[in-house]
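Example (one chain per record):
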Amino acid sequence: MPSGPNSRLPNQRAIIDRRALAEAVAGLHHERGAHARPEIIAALKDALYRGREELERRLLAKPAAGHEITAGHAFLIDQLVRVIFDHASTHLYPAANRTAAERIAVMAVGGYGRAEMCPHSDVDIAFLTPQRDAPWCEQVVEAMLYLLWDLGLKVGHSTRTPADMVRMAREDLSIRTALLEGRYVWGDEPLYEEAAKRFRDEVVKGTERQFVIEKLAERNARHKRMGDSRYVVEPNVKEGKGGLRDLQTLYWIGKYIHRVRVAAELVDVGLFTRTEYTSFRRAEGWLLAVRCHLHTITGRAEDRLTFDLQRQIAERMNFVDRPGKSAVERFM
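Predicted structure:
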């Protein structure tokens, strides 16, 4: 499963200083107890706002750095989730002697799991617990979700045991694909490792051919729905033909068959040449950058390059007019 976003991020503390934020949250709780909630939410919101501001500055300075900026947004959310988990599990619902059932692993899935988040991407989280109906786990998860919602984040979430995860992944292609991108964020790491191993051994093993057939059928249906052409005049950079989802589908199939954690390892197993992977990676980074600009300009999760947005993004990405071709034509 994918590694975290922080390995390729320069100057991480300029985005968010988790230790300082955690100390501030602990201090507020120590001083005011349950009455500190508004101040704690304000501190978390301020950290989110400042982190996004820093990443917007970096995007303007390096307007084609899609991988760096999306990894930065995933890093920002990681640190907030960690602070919130620690606050919920130690301050709001302390348990001195937790039982074996009172464990939680927080896992990022989907685009968040890949560490490819644009400014207004959904935060997709899976909470893993050893068994169902554990009151402490339910309380901590609920407290975390309310804090994340109070920050204005759009959270996709599930709470499952490893056995639930295996059963549902076998039955549902979307769940299986999301878990393929699963990444440990915080909490009980051995529980996460158990779930990851069971996913590989009990879901992936022996179903490779079926997965390829289903993902290609899904891709064909999506192409038909989106116009089935690379040359639409207002393309969708995520779902359109030749867009991010096509690249991700290629990587998903390769990762599923070859059991690798990240797409770069597909070179090592011989699926891509180094030149091919570099070309795919460059295209992906450029599309991710365009998507970040779309989110930043519109203030929402926008993926369609409308005519008015094409001009704005061409300017932000430093395209200029050339003889016989305008800046926006060169961008497109």
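Caption: The radius of gyration is 21 Å.
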